[in-house]
Structure formats: structure tokens, C-alpha cells
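for the recovery benchmark. C-alpha cells below, seq after
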């Protein structure tokens, strides 16, 4: 069974005002923290990238570049980008990427190693203003999607992604597997009414200082994922069982922690 910390706490509530940041640009004045994950990210800082689930970035992008038919020069939106590991890897391959995350420290970390073609901004995933601007979108490792604890918030993230894509634009979205959570996640409490797991755990920053914190993750079954995407004009091409650093096309199973959806925006929307 994977470590519970393989779930990526990511983006949640935040101000609607956009703050786009390119390589080396200042982030400006700090904004008030409005989501439970922000103090978690602030404490973790660069230590986030020490977690084992972050070590498979290249394999994940190898798979997604093929699955989404990504080409040099295309524009990709990375929703819940965290410190930018997927965005940076895509940009190194000649793909233009814009990453958004609610955590200002994570956005600043992403900027430090950002190659040409990668930009970042602190933004609420439920209030994305993009309209038909991106050829593809990724939302991985429980970044924005799955970290929303209020009803309707995950749907708002999906709606924003769908609106951001050009007609025919493609999406890769991962979610924590509800079947796996019920069977294996013994260190967390699973609320069957909401599909949300809650646990109390310890996290350490780069200096090794530990704090206890709460983590919440909304879990999904394949039918639920299909339903929420279809409601917002997205056509589901496949749903697979995956693990961090081992993306592939295996059919859904109760034995893997994550589900990966490949979808596209319908031409009529």
C-alpha cells in the first residue's frame, strides 16, 4: 500500500485577482491564506519535492505527451501545478505551459527553475478566467481537483478547465481512487456520504522541523469521474488505474491509489 503522503495536497480557495509570473518576475505582496492547504505548503516549501511520489515526473510526462498527442509549440494549462515539476518538464520539451496554484510559496519555487516557455501564477482553480486559450490541460496528483472539500468546488474546477480548452482540446486529470481508499486507507477516516478522506499526519520542512496537520482528499469512482466531466462538455476517452511514476493504460482496479482520466472537449462546446 502506498504511503498516504503520495497524495499531493494542492490548490484550493483563493482570490480571483490574477497574478501571472514569468521567469524571474516578482510575486508581489502576499495574499491572505484562505484554504486549508496553504499553511501546509508554506511549511513544506522545497521539502515537498523530497516525497517519493514526485520522483516519477519524467515517466508521467513521457506517457502524457503521447496520450495527449502533445506537440512542440502547443499551449498547456497545468492546474494545481505545485512547485511546477510537470510544467517544467513539458517546457523543456518545447511545449508552452502556464501553471496555476493557490500556494504562493509553490509558485515561487516553480519560478526558480522555470525554463523558457513556462509561466506561473497564483490563482483559484475554481475561478479561472481562461476561455479557449489552451490546446491541452493537466490536473495531476490531487492538485486542484480532489482537494476541494465543499460541494460543487471540484465541478467548478472541471468547468474552468473545459472553458479554458479550445474545442477538441485534451485533458489529463487524476483523482484518488475511492475503492482503494475504502479497502486500504486505514490511517484515514472515510466519509461515505461525501467521499472525503481525512487524516492527521506529520510533515517536515527542509530544515527537518515537524508539525502535525490535517489532510482532506475527495475520492472518486470511475463512474463519478465520467459523470462530472461529461456534465461540463468533456468527452471521456479512457480511465486507467495508475501509480505515481507509473502512468499507463491499465483498467480501473481497487488495487491502485489513483485514477487517470484522458478526455477532450467536444467540438460543439
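predicted aa per position
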Amino acid at each position: 500500500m502506498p504511503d498516504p503522503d503520495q497524495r499531493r495536497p494542492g490548490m484550493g480557495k483563493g482570490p480571483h485577482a490574477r497574478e501571472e509570473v514569468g521567469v524571474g518576475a516578482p510575486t508581489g505582496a502576499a495574499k491572505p491564506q484562505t484554504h486549508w492547504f496553504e499553511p501546509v505548503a508554506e511549511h513544506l516549501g522545497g521539502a515537498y519535492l523530497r516525497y517519493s511520489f514526485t520522483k516519477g515526473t519524467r515517466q508521467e510526462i513521457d506517457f502524457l505527451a503521447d496520450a495527449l498527442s502533445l506537440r512542440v509549440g502547443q499551449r498547456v494549462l497545468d492546474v494545481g501545478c505545485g512547485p511546477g515539476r510537470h510544467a517544467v518538464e513539458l517546457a523543456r520539451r518545447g511545449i508552452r505551459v502556464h501553471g496555476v496554484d493557490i500556494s504562493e510559496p509553490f509558485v515561487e519555487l516553480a519560478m526558480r527553475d522555470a525554463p523558457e516557455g513556462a509561466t506561473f501564477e497564483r490563482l483559484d482553480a475554481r475561478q479561472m478566467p481562461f476561455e479557449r486559450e489552451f490546446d491541452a490541460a493537466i490536473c495531476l496528483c490531487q492538485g486542484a481537483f480532489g482537494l476541494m472539500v465543499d460541494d460543487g468546488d471540484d465541478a467548478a474546477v472541471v468547468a474552468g478547465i473545459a472553458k479554458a480548452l479550445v474545442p477538441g482540446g485534451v485533458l489529463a486529470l487524476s483523482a484518488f481512487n475511492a475503492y482503494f481508499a475504502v479497502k486500504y486507507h486505514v490511517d484515514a477516516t472515510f466519509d461515505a456520504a461525501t467521499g472525503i478522506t481525512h487524516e492527521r499526519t506529520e510533515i517536515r520542512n527542509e530544515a527537518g522541523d515537524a508539525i502535525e496537520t490535517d489532510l482532506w482528499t475527495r475520492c472518486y469512482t470511475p463512474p463519478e469521474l465520467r459523470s462530472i466531466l461529461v456534465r461540463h462538455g468533456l468527452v471521456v476517452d479512457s480511465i486507467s488505474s495508475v501509480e505515481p511514476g507509473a502512468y499507463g493504460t491499465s483498467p480501473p482496479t481497487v488495487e491502485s491509489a489513483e485514477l487517470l482520466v484522458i478526455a477532450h472537449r467536444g467540438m460543439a462546446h
